[in-house]
Amino acid sequence: MCFYNGGKGCVLNLRDSLTLSISLSLSLSLSLSLSLSLSLAFCSQDIRNTVGNIPMEWYKDYPHIGYDLDGKKIFKPIRNKDELDEFLDKMENPDYWRTIHDKMTGTDVCLSDEQVDLVHRLQQGKFGDVNFNEYEPAIDFFSNEVMIHPVTNRPADKRSFIPSLIEKEKASPPALPPPVFTSTHLHLPGWSPSMRSEAAFAFAARNASGLGLDESCFEQLDSNLLASVGKLVHAIKMGWIKPRRPKETAPQYYDLWAKEDPNAILGRHKMHIPAPKMRLPGHEESYNPPPEYLLTDEERQVWEQQDPDERKLSFLPQKYLSLRAVPAFSRFIQERFERCLDLYLCPRQRKMRVNVNPEDLIPKLPRPRDLQPFPTLQSLVYHGHSSLIRSISISPSGQWLVSGSDDCTVRFWEVCTTRCLKIMEVGGPVKSVAWNPAPSISLVAVSYGENVLLVNPGLGDRLICSATDQLISSYEEPEEVKDQQVQWAVPEGKAQEQGQRLILTHPKAVKQVSWHGRGDYLACVMPDDGSSLQVVIHQVSRRRTQNPFHRNKGAVQCVSFHPSRPYFLVATQRYVRVYNLIKQELTKKLMANCKWISSMAVHPGGDNVICGSYDCRLAWFDLDLSTKPYKVLRHHKKALRGVAYHKHYPLFASGSDDGTVIVCHGMVYNDLLQNPLIVPVKVLKGHIITHDLGVLDVAFHPTQPWVFSSGADGTVRLFT
């Protein structure tokens, strides 16, 4: 386009740029040719290696270095030079400094004098060609004369014919002097009344500004038009009408924190977020509030004990006889300062709200009726105890039930008839009972105070009962008796007739007893935070006691044996530690994320553990997944006292001080990639809360989908 403007400066600039581009292109081509010639070996014109532009390091581990045009391998030359040969060659060979190694052919190439000179010229920043003169006169490709024909025959675009906005402003004609209106303009036949009035206004403006007018035009104006023109002239002179009103430069003030309407200044800013408004004062802030807004003495004490963040009101409502008696507000400056901090320090961010159906956020759980069977209603109630029942246990056959109470008795029940078959009195409140899980042994462990009784109830198959007595009586004391921390004794007389077979006396009170799956080992818990003797394991067949831990980390709450592996689970207040009894080492440490663990149960498969806590939580652990809970359930409103798994059905239950037993469906899949399915299915009610205690223990029937619960109301209830 510069050739059509006829300016020589533009042509000269283009000539200089062409000269510069030609010189650059020549230097670039020469440098490229030099690099290509160096990389492809100067001495041979035939490029034998056809691997292409790839790193030659790829062939360092192969005997060949590439392929020729026929596809045959090009083997590397035999190079047996080591560092010593390289040094000797460097000292003796006069052409060593000009020898380079060609990676494409694997040979050494000796550079000629012309090639060395070319390298030196390029290093000095000169042109590669010796005969090239960079200062030769530039070739005038285009003449200085403006030609008729364009350089290209490309048709012009449509936009080149339409002026842009800037061109419109530049090409707008200069302001012309205002026309002089005469009578001929005001009485043209095509003029409308509005055009006549505009002409009259122009008349008046010119007259008010002192410009000379043709007086002959006033002679032919009608009287009405002259009157309106005179009024307009007077209004303009007085300043009431401003024909050319200047733009207002006064600053505009507006409320920055106001809730703007769409027509306001800040209303047009889409990303503006107004600050939240302060709450308007209510009746409680009045100097004479209604009586129901005044706090009583008890409410005042509660208000003073609360944290400032938890109080509903930041002040105490007070009553004054008159407005004159109201003192100054003591927190006025502090409240204003906090409000200023909220205004300029509180970050506000606009977040896009996603319209999501709330029902879509709820996980798709199966219907409870599809997860049957599970206990749904209360079937039987076992009455007899006069105090709270702390522990219950079921026989392996599911026919008998044992319960221990604070009324210092242990009762044996028949499950189907609720008949109490046997009552055994002990010397203190019963803390825990546990039926031996081995079906070939009829033993029940009962803990009260510092003693643990091993009782043969004599129920069920007589052969099993007699075999159990024979197993215990067949014990022979070893020649060397070692001192043990627990004393083993055989009861006599009335205690023997009641079924007591062994009495184990511990140094401290026993809180819990737990059997191993095979029925020969019994673990006892004696919680004491400062002692190393908190857990002991007894072997009944050898009447031997051992302390598995030299030092306990925290107060032990409960223990349990793994159902299939040689693992021992110890629950302290906040952690569950899994120990390997064979390797005698800590395997895992589970973090329950609760304040105080109360109970624990192990899944029959052995890969999942549930823990109940006093802060209303039930934590499900997947031992193969993580040391943190896979699921935390907060269905209970008060502390959990007992948890239990079913041996065959995918069910687990939890009992709480709120008097309810919640049964959940907990399916554990064989596929390790699929997480367990946990669905609460039923809330069972029936126990009466006594002394702020509800359900103290839960246990499942070994074969049926039934659950037993014992409560502080002195009853055992069966839900089926």
Question: Averaging pLDDT over every residue, what do you get?
Answer: 80
Shape: flat
Low-pLDDT segments: 1-47, 175-190, 208-220
Beta strand %: 15-25%
Main location: nucleus
Pfam families: BOP1NT, WD40
InterPro entries: BOP1/Erb1, BOP1_N_dom, WD40/YVTN_repeat-like_dom_sf, WD40_repeat_CS, WD40_repeat_dom_sf, WD40_rpt
Family: Belongs to the WD repeat BOP1/ERB1 family.
Tell me what the structure shows.
- With 720 residues, the chain is α+β, with helices and mostly antiparallel strands.
- Helices cover 20% and strands 24% of the residues.
- The chain contains 13 helices and 33 strands.
- Strands 10-11-12-14-13 form a five-stranded antiparallel beta sheet.
- Helix 6 crosses helix 8 (223-238).
Structure described in brief:
Helix content is 20%, strand content 24%. It has 720 residues and is an alpha+beta fold.
Features:
720 residues, 5-stranded antiparallel beta sheet, rRNA processing
Lay out the secondary structure:
Elements lengths: L7 H32 L24 E4 L5 E3 L7 H10 L6 E4 L4 E4 L2 H11 L41 H7 L11 H4 L6 H16 L7 H4 L3 H16 L58 H9 L26 H14 L12 H4 L16 E5 L6 E6 L5 E6 L3 E6 L5 E6 L4 E6 L8 E5 L2 E5 L6 H12 L13 E3 L4 H5 L1 E6 L6 E4 L5 E5 L9 E5 L4 E3 L11 E4 L5 E5 L3 E6 L4 E7 L5 E6 L5 E6 L4 E5 L8 E3 L6 E6 L5 E6 L3 E8 L9 E9 L9 E6 L6 E5 L4 E4 L1
Antiparallel strand pairs: 1-2, 3-4, 5-33, 6-7, 7-8, 8-9, 10-11, 11-12, 12-14, 13-14, 15-16, 16-17, 17-18, 19-20, 20-21, 21-22, 23-24, 24-25, 25-26, 27-28, 28-29, 29-30, 31-32, 32-33
Helix pairs in contact: 6-8
